[in-house]
Design brief:
Blueprint: H1 3-18, H2 37-41, H3 64-68, E1 75-81, H4 86-95, H5 102-118, E2 122-125, H6 130-136, H7 140-151, E3 161-163, H8 175-178, E4 185-187, E5 195-203, H9 207-218, E6 223-231
Parallel strand pairs: 1-6, 2-5, 5-6
Antiparallel strand pairs: 3-4
Helix pairs in contact: 5-7
Length: 232
């Protein structure tokens, strides 16, 4: 029996036994660790609204008013709105020990984030405190940053930031408390005259991103853009 025929029979038998399901709607699929075409079509592109004041915009994601207030974030782009099937997918990835979903999430978001990621000198992941890394078992933002860089065939990310103070999960604290995120980051290297893209998974109030971006600016970055998978 030719090898290819045997391989096809074995693959079909394996798929029949495993019966892969869409990670969102649980419909039967032919590919493991993925979401179906219908669920992919339900992903809502993030509209152009200011990260800080929610003002509708035509292009830039930080409005002129907020930029005039000396925000350390010069540009912002989020791939999707925080709507299903994305929350379920992110929950699986972050909280149910599924680092294998990193490549899927990166491939879904790469097209929307392409321009900012390719037009920067340095890609910097939002750092995760070592206690959270131990609890989760992996650093999801570091994996995501590497996956996005590979997807777009650019140089790998640089661990230029360190989180030096533990804090509760963002989802477990109020928006007002998130604005007290200053002084939790420190720079690991000089970024003199570099254009930097900061990567995170979810943007909410922007407080944590502002704190991280300010440290990057203090380390010499000429500009700091923020890219995220989703904005809530």
């Amino acid at each position: 029996m030719p090898f290819q025929v045997a391989k096809n029979i074995a693959s079909s038998a394996l798929l029949e036994c495993l019966r892969p399901q869409c990670l969102s709607c649980q419909c039967t699929m032919t590919k493991l660790a993925s979401i179906c075409q219908q669920c992919q079509e339900q992903l809502s592109p993030s509209p152009n609204r200011c990260l800080f004041c929610d003002l509708p915009l035509t292009a830039e994601r930080v409005c002129i008013i907020c930029r005039s207030k000396h925000s350390p974030i010069d540009r912002f782009q989020s791939a999707f709105l925080y709507r299903e099937p994305l929350p379920s997918l992110i929950n699986l990835w972050k909280f149910q020990n599924r680092p294998d979903l990193t490549q899927l999430i990166a491939s879904l978001a790469a097209k929307s984030l392409r321009t900012l990621l390719l037009n920067s000198d340095v890609v910097v992941p939002m750092p995760t405190h070592w206690r959270r890394q131990m609890w989760r078992g992996f650093d999801h933002i570091w994996l995501l940053s590497n996956a996005l860089c590979r997807q777009l065939q650019r140089s790998p990310p640089a661990p230029a930031l360190k989180q030096n103070r533990w804090r509760p999960q963002q989802s477990k604290i109020s928006r007002s408390l998130r604005h007290s995120d200053g002084h939790i980051f420190e720079a690991r290297t000089s970024l003199t005259n570099q254009t930097v893209v900061l990567i995170d998974d979810i943007a909410t109030t922007g407080a944590t991103a502002r704190a991280a971006a300010q440290v990057l600016k203090n380390a010499g970055a000429r500009s700091v853009a923020l890219v995220t998978i989703t904005s809530a």
